[in-house]
Amino acid sequence: METKTYPDYETLSAAVAQIMCDNIRQKPTAVICLASGHTPLLPCRLFVQKANDEHLHISEATFLGLDEWVGVPPENEGSCHYFLYNTVFNPLGLQAGQIHVFNGMAEDLSIECETMDDVIENNGGIDLMIVGIGMNGHIGFNEPGVPFNHLSHVIELDKTTIEVGQKYFPAATTLTKGITIGLQHLMNANKVLLIANGEKKAAIIQQTIESEVSNQIPATIMQTHKNGIIMIDAAASSLLS
Ligand code: F6R
Fold it and tell me: Phi/psi class of residue 198: alpha, beta or left (left: φ > 0; alpha: ψ in -120 to 50)?
């Protein structure tokens, strides 16, 4: 694992967008898995701008949504679906077959998980994952205590995730479970960028990089990834020793 620090969120975001474009340029059939949330917003916008400006050949790439809130419909502004379609998929003009996201409203969520696992396998694995980090150290909805060897699964959300998650929704929303790509997929991915910005992430970033690897802080798994990069701005790096 490597840690890279950037002066601010803008330069961090530009570096992430550059890596995404380079990845697709080198491998047009790349499989890219994206988190939603506040951290990936600017990286995703800059990626779309760059891909469009540079006429990046994107029609063979596959895009995966990292996770979804169970019971939240896609048209809800707080859903991961809404974020990814509005920020990335629609502005890039992707075809439906290039996109695979979880349906948090599905009657049978185990089928959602199996389908995602099959898509990943049938496309030869994930080339690039862009993930954020929760205030409790989660990645996707891999909450504290999650086994590191899980593939896609449904999980009870941690108290912190439920509280912090309200920030995405226009009105108070009942959040109980999440559906997520598991940490085994992250370990199998060719490259993982864990991105974080701002002072509020400094303490969890310090624990992620400097504590022992433990599923109580799921993001510590990054320490063991062969091609994992923690990309942070100066504020998020401020507590590193
Ligand atoms: C969202 C996701 C979450 C977020 C994390 C950080 O798809 O996977 O793990 O990445 O909670 O969220 P922000 O970026 O809003 O601080």
Answer: left
Q: How far is the CA of 34 from the centre of ligand 1 (A)?
A: 10
Q: What are phi and psi of 60, to 5 degrees?
A: -100, -5
Q: Describe the chain by its helix, strand, coil percentages, rounded to 5.
A: 40, 20, 40
184-237 per-position pLDDT tens digit: 999 999 999 999 999 999 999 999 999 999 999 999 999 999 999 999 999 999
Ligand 1 atom nearest residue 165's Cα: 11
User: Pocket around ligand 1: residues whose beta carbon is below 6 Å from it?
Assistant: 35-39, 66-67, 80, 132-134, 138-140
What domains does the chain contain, in order, with CATH numbers?
Answer: 2-233 (3.40.50.1360)
The number of the ligand 1 atom at minimal distance from the alpha carbon of 142 is 9
**Is the separation of the CB atoms in 79 and 72 below 8 Å?**
yes
Whole-number Å distance between alpha carbons of 198 and 42: 14
Report the distance separating Cα 184 and Cα 82, nearest Å. 26
Q: To 10 degrees, the CA torsion angle through 147, 102, 228, 31? A: 140
Q: What are residue 75's phi and psi, to 5 degrees? A: -80, -10
Coil vs helix vs strand at 142: strand
pLDDT of residue 29: 98
- Residue of 81, 100, 127, 136 marked active site: 136
Q: Each residue of 157-169: pLDDT tens digit?
A: 999 999 999 999 9
Average predicted confidence (pLDDT) for the chain: 98
